[in-house]
Amino acid sequence: MITGSEIRKKFLDFFAERGHTVVPSSSLVPYNDQTLLFTNAGMVQFKDVFLGLEQKPFQRAVTAQRCLRAGGKHNDLETVGRTARHQTFFEMLGNFSFGDYFKADAIRYAWEFLTVTLGLDKEKLYVTVYDQDEEARELWQSLTGIEPSRIFGIGGKDNFWSMGDTGPCGPCSEIFVDRGEKYCCQAEVCAIGHCDCDRWMEIWNLVFMQYNRDEAGNLTPLPKPSIDTGMGLERITSVLQEVDSNYDTDLLKGLIQAVEELCGKPYSPGPAGFPFRVIADHARACSFLIADGVMPSNEGRGYVLRRILRRAARFGRALGLEEPFLYKLAPSAQRSLGEAAPELTRQMETVRKILRAEEERFADTLQYGLAVAAEMIKKLLSAKEKFFKREDAFLLYDTYGFPLDLTKDIAEEYGLSVDTEGFNRAMEEQRARARAARQKADTWEETVNMAQLFSGLPVSVFHGYEQNSVKGKALALFCGGQLVEEISGECRGYIALDRTVFYAEGGGQAADQGAIRTKNALLQISDALKLANGVVLHKFTLEEGSVRLGEEAEALIDTQRRRDIERNHTATHLLHKALRSRLGEHLHQAGSQVLPERLRFDFTHFAPLSVADLAALEEEINEQIMADLPVSAQAMRLEEAKQSGALAFFDGKYGENVRVVALGDYSRELCGGTHCHAAGQIGSVKLLSEAGIGVGIRRIEAVTGRFALRYYRENEETLEKISHILKTEPAALLKKTEALQSENKALAKELEKLKMQQTKDKIEVLSAARVKMAGIPVLLAEVEAGDMEALRRTMDLLWERQQGVILLAAKAEDKVNIMVKVSGEGQKAGLHAGNLAKEAAAACGGGGGGKADMAQAGGKNAEKIPEALAAAGLVIKRILCE
Fold first, then answer.
1. Which of 12, 166, 402, 768 has the fewest CB atoms inside 10 Å of its own CB, making it the most exposed?
2. 571 vs 358: CA distance, rounded Å
3. Whole-angstrom distance, CA of residue 506 vs CA of residue 433
4. What is the pTM of this model?
5. With DSSP H G I counted as helix, E B as strand and the rest as coil, what are the percentages for the chain, rounded to 5?
6. Element of type H or E holding 776
C-alpha cells in the first residue's frame, strides 16, 4: 500500500522533473498579510507574485503546503469529524506557473500524474469546468480523451476563482473521483453539481488566472496568465489506500490509535468515533500552530488556537480523559508528516509544554463551566425552549473560557441551537473597548492600496547600511489621496525616491526619521514604509518650497536617532543569544520592538526568570559589549546561512539570498536591520523588567547607550534625595532602611497592643449596656467599624462575653453595615436574626436578611442608625414582652 509520504514525494518529484522549483511549505502564519488569519491554500505564499508585487527567480513552483482552515472565510472547524474528508489542518499539494505555461499544460500534467504516476482508473475520473470556459472543455477532451459526458459545466459560484473583490481571477476546473455507489447519498439526483456526498470526491482544483477584475467588475485579460492548483494530500491518500475516510489513512490513523491508547477505548468509524476524529485533527492543528509561533490568547490567531485546543480537551473528557493529554499526542502529530515537518521536530519540547500549560489552565474552569452549562440546559429543557440565549453563551465564554464552538457542540447534544448572532453582537460590544488594535490592519490596507498605486516604480535602492545621506530623484509624489506631479503649500503625504538611506519599519525595528531636501524645498520625514514591491515610501510634511517629479533630492536621516536604534538592535541580538545560552535551545524569539529609547524582546519560555538569572544575563551581555565584538553583515544563500548556524526570526519570510549579521563568533542571525559596527558602541545594557505576556511567552525590556546612562543617573538622583530625607549617605541607605524597618515593626506592635486594649475597653462598655428582656440579654448599639469584617470581629468579641440578642450598626463611608446574632434561646422565644436585620436596614433606606441565628444587611442613610436601632428594639420588645 502506498503511503501518504510516498504520494507527497511522487508529486514533488513529478513536477520537479518538469522544470518546477520545489519550494518548502511556508508558515501557517501568512507573512506580512493582515487579511488572512492563516495560510489556507498553497498559493498564499505566492500571493504577491500573482499580484505583480514580487518577483521570484523561477516561473514554475511546486509545494506541499501545510494549511489551516479554522477562521475567517474558510472555516472547517464545525465539520471536522462529521464528514469523511474535512479537517482544520491538512496538506495541500500544488503546482504553480507565474506567466509560464497555462491551461493546456496544467490539464496535461494533472491527468498524467493521476492516471500514469498514481495509476488511477481513467473511467472513475470526472471533470468540471466553468460553464462559460469552452476552451477548457475542449482541452480536456483533446488532451486526455475523457468522454464529454464526464465533463460538467458549473456556474461561477463554484468554478470561477477570485483573490478578492478586485485583482487577478479566472475560471477553474475541478477533478472528481467516483468512489462507488456504496458512498451515494441516495438523493433524488446523486451527481456532480447536484449533491455534496462522499461518492463524488473532489481531489484537485486547477485555477486558470487569466483576468484582472477592476472596481467596476470589468474583466481584462492578463498579459501573462498564471496557474494555481491545489490537491488535498489526505483526500488523494484515502482514494489510493481505498479507505472510507481521511481518518483511516496512514496520515491520521496513527493519531487515532494514540487516542485509543490514552483513553483505553476502541475507535469505530461511525458517530461513536466522532470525538476520536476531532481530537486527532485538533492535535495536529494545535501542534503545528504553536511550532509556527502562534500562542494561545484571547485575540486573533491565538484565540483560534485556544478554541481548537479547548474543543479537543472537551471531547477528551467525553472519552474519559480528565487529565491533560494533548501534549502526549504532539509526537504522533509530528510522525503524521514525518520528514515534511522539521519545524515541529525541532520545537517538540516547546510545543508539548505549551499544550500542557494551556490545557491545565482550561481544566481549572472546565469542570465548573460544564456544571453551569448543564444547569442552563436543564432550565431550557424544562421550559421547552429551543435556543441557548446569547447571555448564557457569552457568560460561558467570558467567565469559563468556552469558545462558541464548544457551547454549540454541548447544546447540539440536547437538540438545542445557540443564538449565534446575539453572541457575536455581545462579542462586538466587548471588542469596542479595544478598537485601537484594528488600526494596524487599517494601516496595512493603506499599504496594499499604495502598493497598487506605486506598482510601476523600480525597487528603491537602500544605501542606509553605509551612509547617513544620499542623493536621488523624486519618482513619485502622493498628496491629498492621489498621485500628483508637484507638491507645494501645506501638504502631507508620501514621496518615493530611486535611492534612500531611510530604513523602513520591519523586523521589529522602527523606521528612520529625518529630512529630504531639494534645491528649494524641505520635507520633514516622520516615517518610512516598504511596499511589497520593494518601493520605500517616505511620509513627509512639507515645511517650505515645492517639489516636482524627477527633481533631485537629498535624503538625510536623524543620525542620533539611528545610532540609538542601532544600539538597541545589536543589543537585542546579544540578548537573544545570551538567553539561549543560559536557558536552553528551546527558547525562540516570539516578537521584538526596537525603538530609539528602549528595546523589547519576546521569547518562548515557561517560567519567570529569577533575579539571579537576570543579573547573569545582564553580566554576560555587558561582557560581550566590553569585549567590543566586531559586527559584520554578509549576504549569502539561505541554505548556506542555515548551515552556518544563523538564527531566523520567528515570522521571517526569506528569499534565496539573505543577510546574516554576526557579532564575532558569539551570535549569528538572519537580519535586514541596521546595527552598530562594533558591540562597544552600545555602551551598556540595563535590563528593566521581565514578565509573562501569555502562555509560554515572556518579555524583557531594556535600555542601552545614553538611555541606560539616563536610567543610572535618575536612579542616582533618587538615591541622593532619599539619603537627604533620611539624613544619611547613599552607601549607608540599606543599613538605615533596615533600622527604620525594625523601629516601625516595634511601633506597630505597640500600636496594636493599644488598639486591642481600646477595643477591650469598648467591649466592656458595650457589655455593660446590655438589658434583659424576658431573661434574654439584648444589646442594640452603634459601633465604629470601617467594613463588614471589622464589624464581625466586634460581634465575635461581644458574643464571647455573653450570648442572647446582639444587633450592631456601623457607618462605613456613606453607607450603613448591620449585623445581627440571635442565640438558640432567643430563637425559641420567636426572634429571627434575618427579620431583625431587615427591619433595621429598612429604617436606614436599605435591605437585607439572613438566617435565624445570624444575618447582615446594609443601609443607605447613616443618619438613620438611631431609628434603625429603635425599630429593631420595638420588634424585640413586642415578641419577648407582650
1. 768
2. 32
3. 28
4. 0.69
5. 45, 25, 30
6. strand 776-783
